[in-house]
């Protein structure tokens, strides 16, 4: 529910009738010259020379000799009072990217049919491509005069092509001149708002859509854009106000109500969101999307019983059964009912949630150390989801890691890197396994590859800095990595712990203790507790160290870090 309906919704219309990259044959150069009269005005007298030109153009097109076809069509267009021949010449000229002859053909076309909107669109595109602001404004003015109702849609049709050509800013500037000439045209300001949003100038976009709404206050499309822009800037209150206004003006518009619902959920206004869901369901009780949203809101609020009741209603809907089963499984996981959770996850046999459900089942079994079952599931997943092969390999590596089969895990990850040598997650996972195998050269190489691409990767900085601290005496290098990580994420517990451990290795136990205790307050993990206990022990505070150890060890008697501390310091009953 955190997504925003993309502003690109306004740009999703089809492009111009013929794209410049589109081969003219896609429009259909006839296989034979018969039927030329179907594309030539029957009232036009065609002399022998014109007929020859048309036949030559057709034959040239069939032979992919488009330059010859262009010449013939252009000459014929000048002689015959039929704009469609000029149109044909324009489309071939665009395909050939012959701007000079395309402009010539376009001039002929407009001279014979000045109100043709397709011709005007081509003229606008050509003018913008050539930075001819005067011609662009002139042709847009003609479009606005001839078809004011379709002007907005017509310009939006061309927006993608303008963006592809890198001409969005210039197009905006053209519309700025148009806005001066037509200060009461809401559509011009709306189009500027759309273009400003494409240019990532959110403030300008909001300013322009506000101008559009001053002229046309009840224009829902503009209200929706205003809400989207407000949401993009994080102003959920403004987004909510805009959408509430739109919903009030059009209470039957279900899309508007769902957008408002999204804003309420993002703003954590759950009570109002529930009321809105209920109002939607009053009109349409089986609205699956709203039911699903309502269930997620109840889950967010901890109203598990209500969430389960709503999700169970979706089980009879084949399109929503999968996600309903998946979230019913998640509820059972939270309630510590692993067997019930597995039953729900296994019910998701296909659809968008099938892979996530299988992954959730494997994670659940991993936590329960039911490794035999996991191995069989991973094999099935590899066959069932070939497009998810990498993620399945990662799960297999984690299984081997959990089993202590570090070489097998290393081999799986090495195989994965053959297919995706620069994948960050695989490199990081193999680095951690390499540490277990004392392959510190591989660890350093893999983490350095990550840092070469992203120098501010905190995970890699911390892992490399901590390993150099714990497994080598290259403390100066370790400090460089850990200080960088700490500057990027000063409140991250694992980074604070690593830096504290470095201080201990540098012979500064009191300073180390300060950092380690701060890390433990933020995240009371066993490894951090073991570090604190060891530093206390080195300072002669053995009683405090043992008390801390005992309190943590009772909860996690199998933890490797605690067992290592026990082996080194407590095995002789000290």
Automatic annotation (TrEMBL):
TPR repeat residue numbers: 390-423, 493-526
Key words, A-Z: Repeat, TPR repeat
Phosphoprotein among keywords: no
Keyword Lipid biosynthesis recorded: no
PANTHER family in UniProt: CELLULOSE SYNTHASE OPERON PROTEIN C, TPR REPEAT-CONTAINING PROTEIN MJ0263
Protein name in UniProt: Tetratricopeptide repeat protein
Organism: Methylomonas rosea
């Amino acid at each position: 529910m955190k997504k925003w309906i993309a502003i690109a919704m306004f740009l999703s219309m089809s492009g111009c009738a013929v794209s410049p990259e589109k081969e003219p044959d896609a429009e259909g150069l006839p296989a034979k010259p018969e039927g030329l009269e179907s594309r030539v005005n029957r009232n036009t007298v065609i002399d022998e020379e014109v007929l020859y030109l048309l036949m030559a153009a057709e034959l040239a097109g069939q032979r992919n000799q488009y330059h010859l076809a262009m010449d013939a069509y252009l000459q014929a267009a000048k002689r015959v009072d039929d704009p469609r021949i000029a149109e044909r010449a324009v489309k071939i000229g665009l395909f050939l990217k012959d701007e000079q002859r395309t402009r010539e053909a376009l001039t002929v076309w407009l001279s014979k049919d000045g109100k043709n909107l397709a011709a005007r669109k081509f003229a606008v595109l050509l003018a913008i491509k050539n930075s001819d602001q005067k011609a662009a404004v002139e042709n847009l003015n003609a479009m606005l005069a001839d078809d004011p109702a379709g002007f907005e849609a017509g310009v939006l049709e061309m927006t993608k092509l303008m963006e592809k050509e890198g001409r969005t800013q210039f197009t905006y500037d053209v519309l700025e001149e148009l806005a001066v000439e037509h200060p009461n045209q809401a559509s011009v300001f709306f189009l500027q708002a759309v273009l400003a949003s494409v240019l990532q100038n959110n403030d300008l976009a909001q300013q322009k859509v506000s101008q559009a709404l001053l002229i046309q206050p009840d224009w829902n499309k503009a209200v929706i854009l205003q809400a989207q822009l407000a949401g993009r800037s994080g102003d959920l209150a403004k987004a909510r106000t805009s959408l509430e206004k739109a919903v009030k003006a059009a209470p039957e518009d279900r899309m508007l109500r769902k957008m408002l619902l999204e804003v309420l959920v993002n703003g954590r206004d759950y009570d109002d969101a529930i009321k809105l869901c209920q109002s939607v369901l009053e009109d349409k009780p089986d609205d699956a999307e709203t039911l699903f949203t309502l269930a997620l809101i109840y889950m967010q609020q901890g109203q598990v019983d209500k969430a389960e009741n709503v999700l169970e209603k979706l089980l009879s809907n084949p399109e929503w059964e999968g996600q309903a089963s998946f979230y019913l499984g998640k509820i059972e996981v939270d309630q510590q009912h692993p067997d019930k959770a597995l039953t729900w996850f296994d019910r998701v046999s296909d659809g968008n949630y099938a892979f996530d459900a299988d992954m959730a089942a494997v994670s659940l079994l991993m936590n329960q150390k039911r490794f035999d079952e996991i191995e069989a599931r991973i094999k099935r997943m590899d066959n069932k989801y070939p497009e998810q092969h990498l993620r399945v390999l990662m799960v297999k590596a984690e299984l081997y890691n959990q089993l202590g089969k570090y070489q097998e895990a290393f081999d799986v990850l090495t195989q994965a890197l053959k297919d995706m040598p620069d994948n960050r997650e695989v490199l990081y996972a193999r680095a951690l396994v390499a540490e277990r195998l004392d392959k510190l050269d591989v660890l350093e190489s893999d983490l350095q590859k990550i840092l070469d691409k992203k120098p501010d990767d905190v995970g890699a900085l911390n892992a490399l800095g901590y390993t150099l601290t714990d497994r080598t005496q290259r403390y100066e290098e370790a400090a460089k990595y850990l200080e960088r990580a700490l500057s990027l994420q000063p409140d991250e517990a694992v980074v604070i712990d690593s830096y504290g451990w470095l201080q201990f290795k540098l012979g500064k136990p009191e300073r180390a203790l300060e950092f380690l205790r701060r890390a433990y307050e933020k995240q009371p993990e066993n490894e951090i507790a073991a570090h604190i206990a060891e530093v206390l022990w080195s300072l002669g505070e053995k009683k405090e160290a043992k008390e801390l150890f005992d309190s943590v060890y009772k909860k996690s008697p199998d933890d490797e870090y605690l067992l290592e501390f026990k082996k080194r310091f407590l095995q002789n009953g000290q």
